[in-house]
Amino acid sequence: MNNNYYKSHLKLDFIALKGQQALNKVSVLVIGTGGLGCPCLTALASSGIGNIGLADGDLISSSNISRQTLFNYAHTGKHKTTIAITALRSRNPLIFYQEHCFFVTEENILPLIEPYDIVVDATDNFQARYLINDACIVKGKPLVYGAIFQTEGHLTVFNYQNSPTLRCLFKEPEADEDLLSCAESGAYMISTNIIGTMMANEVIKIALEHEEVLRGKLLSFEALSLNTTLTHYTADPFSKAKSYSRFSEITKAIELTAEDFSRQSSGIMLIDVRTNAERKAQHIGGKHIPLQELEQFDLTAFDANQHFYFYCQTGLRSLQAAKKLRAKGYKNAFSLKKGITNLNSQFKHT
């Protein structure tokens, strides 16, 4: 450990040499390298967290750059995790970085988080959030949670020393479209930087076993008024059971790679479950049934062997759609893994 790099921390009573050594031994996984992930990662690297994992399958777009502070225009079109690690390593080359250049799914989430001591949820959609929460329950990992809505920011810690979980605080929405992402609702970059840095603060407090960790408490911050509120919440006895049940059954493969997806033949019903705006911007054909309308779709004309191929932007909503149909007895419902964002540009449904 380079004591000169951490000179300021060594002067602080609550860190000092013993605390800095503890930070250097901790491994932290940050899922999402966007508006929250960038400031969080910057603070974690600067603080000397010894092993930092970055998980995200997204590419950098020009609309990201104003609030995602590890990127610039020259990085447009490149993988966020790759560029983020390069930027972080230039800030602190003394620690280890691990790149996980993919989106989290039910199939990869458990082995992904297994080696890490603490998990940070810096994603911007609730389907991913519940998946990460459930996996952390199963693997016994503390989960630092941050969220942004325009100028508002929210922060808490789940599953730390048997504290409540995401399902205790918020009921799971029925559809992904019920809640807007930052890209859809807008995000004030001041809020994302503040909350992202505060998420890193919670990681450090957990690593140091500090008594003021935000477990069972939701901190809400409004950037314009500077109002800060603290809301206490309690455990729901059924929440962890639901998290465990998510991974309790091994089922037939439900996700298809782009290659397998493109091998579809006659008799396949291709269904786009995205919003009207997404469909208008880009699609690969098939029927258009937004996820929230799927329950009203008449399945009575199809037998149990009908093949349904669902797709969306990133594979999260289509996976939910495939599960809905499988729950109704249609065992040949499949989802395009990682969505059309990563679909081979040469594949076109005809």
TrEMBL record:
Annotated Gene3D superfamilies: NAD(P)-binding Rossmann-like Domain, Rhodanese-like domain
Short name of any one Pfam family annotated for the protein: ThiF
Alphabetized GO MF terms: nucleotidyltransferase activity; sulfotransferase activity; thiosulfate-cyanide sulfurtransferase activity; ubiquitin-like modifier activating enzyme activity
Keyword Iron-sulfur recorded: no
Gene Ontology CC, one term: cytosol
Coiled-coil region(s): none
Keywords from the named record: Nucleotidyltransferase, Transferase
PROSITE patterns given in the database record: RHODANESE_3
Rhodanese domain sequence ranges: 264-348
Protein name as catalogued: Adenylyltransferase and sulfurtransferase
Organism annotation: Pedobacter caeni
